[in-house]
Every structure is written in C-alpha cells, then in structure tokens.
Amino acid sequence: MSERQNGQHPVQETMRVTMEEIRSMVDANTIIGTPISCDGGTTVIPVSKISFGFASGGSDLPTKVAKDMFGGGGGAGVTVTPVGFLVISGTDVKLMQLSIHANPTNAVVNMVPDLVDKLTAFLTKKQEDRMLQAADPESSAS
C-alpha cells in the first residue's frame, strides 16, 4: 500500500487538495453577493444558488517499491446560478426572484408577509371604527 512520509494515504491528499480548491471557489459572498447601493437609499443584494459535485479515487498497483506505484485523481465542478435579488428600501425588504426560478409555491410564500400586513391593517381599522361608533352612538344612527 502506498503511503506518504506522514502516514497519510495519497487518496487522502488528493481529496484534501480537491476540497481546498472547492473552498477557494465558493464562499458566503458567492451565495449572498456584495450589496449594491442605489439612488434613493435602496440597496440590492444578489442571491445565487450553488451546486457542486465532488469525486476522488485511487488505486494501489502491485509493485516491488510501494511508494512508487499509485494511481489516483480527483475532480470537482461548481455551478453558480443567480436566483434573485434582495431589495432593501428603508424598512421594506423584498425578494425579487428571477422568473426562470420562480414557481407558484414561492410566489405564494413571498405574498404571505404582504397579506398579513394588509389583513392586520384591515382588522385594526375595523376595530377602530367599532370603537368610534361605540363612543358616539348618534353617528351610527345616521
């Protein structure tokens, strides 16, 4: 069996080097991009999806000198796909999806915060109207 001086098998070294290369290609700024400041105090932050694959392997070949015979390899692939933008304007934050990645489920989920806000405002107004009518019974008679 082939081994390095530090006792680590060459397949382990191949895997370690491949993983280091993947780490150098992908970091947190790849998924959530660098914020872009626009006029009017709006900030736009790109959002991406990352997919990657990894393979590594090796074989010890019969030899009279173990350290001389090893065949191995490793590889990886990374795909970065933009999926949308976070748009921040004041206290309003929205996720603007690119249409190629939008689906009906995501659209419904994205609408929930707006619906909750509108429903809360409607119910609050209705309760305020009832309180005003209770305080002034003559205005409800007309």
What tags apply to this protein structure?
4 strands, 2 domains, four-stranded antiparallel beta sheet, single chain, disordered N terminus, alpha+beta, 33% strand, 142 residues
Description:
The protein is α+β, with helices and mostly antiparallel strands. The chain has two domains: 1-97, no CATH class; 103-137. The protein has four helices and four strands, in the order H-H-E-E-E-E-H-H. It has helices at residues 10-25, 28-31, 104-135, 137-141; strands at 36-37, 42-60, 70-89, 92-97. The chain has a four-stranded antiparallel beta sheet. Strand 1 and strand 2 (42-60) form a beta hairpin. The longest helix has 32 residues, at 104-135. It is rod-shaped and about 105 Å long.
Task: Summarize this structure briefly.
This protein has helices at residues 10-25, 28-31, 104-135, 137-141, and strands at 36-37, 42-60, 70-89, 92-97. It has 142 residues and is α+β, with helices and mostly antiparallel strands.
Q: What number is the mean pLDDT?
A: 77
Uncertain regions spanning at least 5 consecutive residues: 1-5
How many β-strand stretches? Answer: 4
Helicity level: 40-55%
Give Rg in angstroms: 30 Å
Class from helix and strand fractions: alpha+beta
The best one-word shape is: rod-shaped
Strand content: 25-35%
Order of the strands making up the biggest sheet? 1-2-3-4
Tally of DSSP helical segments: 4
Q: Major β-sheet, in short?
A: 4 strands, antiparallel
* Cα end-to-end separation: 98 Å
**Number of individual domains:** 2
Q: Give the ordered list of helices and strands.
A: HHEEEEHH
